[in-house]
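Structure tokens please, single chain.
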Amino acid sequence: MPSSILEQAKKQFVKGNYQQVINLLEPHVTQYVVSGDAKDVVYNASFNKSFPFYLYLGLACLHAGDIGGAVDYLACARKIKMTDPDLLCAQAVLFLRRGDTARAIDYYLEAIEYNPNHELARSGLEFIRTHNTPEAIGDAVQSGEIKKFYPRPGVQSYIKKRIILFACLVVAAFVAVIAVMVLIKIPLSLRTQNNNRADLSAFALLSDEKARPIDTGGTYRYMLSEKEVLAAYRNAQKYFQDSRDNLAQIEVNRILSSNAAHSIKQKARLLMDYFAKPGFDTVRDIPSYSEVRADIPLYLDCWTIWSGRATNIQSDGDNTSFDLLVGYSERIQLEGVVPIFCNFSVRIDSERPIEVLGKIQQRGGILFLKAAGIHQSQVPENKR
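Here you go.
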């Protein structure tokens, strides 16, 4: 549709893509009938009487350096509408380029007559007042300074929209950051003044909890005294602040599987939400396979790195699983077999040693790792 072509051209114009404007519009100018030195335009029926069509095409030619095209198309626009200030300023600057300051002044004054606040027209007149010699005008043309007097209708509103959009994006980004901090349960109030990882004042035990930290009755894996429950709870917080999340997790597990009071267990469980996911180079206090095997519940949700070799490898394109022969890297001693589950696809060579970073889990009495990372050398074993 012609209107959609014109709208596309306007969008390209405000972005400064003047050649694209010409490419969009010029094919719709049907032909010129030449008679002597004058050109009478035969309008394309789609854009017959379309002032914006010829204005934007003429201005695009002006900005692109096609002065002849600018003269012709702006003349077509003037036949349709003679009172547009942007058109008058464009024709004024064409006279100015030729050194015809008298005609340029007439057109600038006419533009101001139709729009007394037209800044470009007033700037053009001020330029002529201060550069009223052929040499000064010639220098402005050669240096490109003259281009600042080329009209750019719609550009100011486009810039304002971009500024508003940018401001909205900044605000949205700020809101998103705040929302993320809330969602991951690290509110701004947790940024402490004493360089702790977090302000754990919300986890402080109430006086009743301190007075009665254990439940009487029932069967538990760990039967702790009141002092042991309180010490485990303190240690969990201390290890967390020291960025030793595995040790904090062990203390939390000790509490959860003990005779500690229900409210203390709830607070200990909430502390787990603040533990960080480590990498191969940041995990600390790594429990060995033998330690975990001896007391699996105590190490649940701790992170570990175990090495060995992979067997029974299976992959469906999105997930990978295998059995890790723990300690069997050198094919000398096998400590045990642990299923490994990866919620990502990874290529594994069963003939090479492998390291697995994973979280310790248990289901149906079976110990397994939920892997977060795999390390395996790509160098063939016989060349290492």
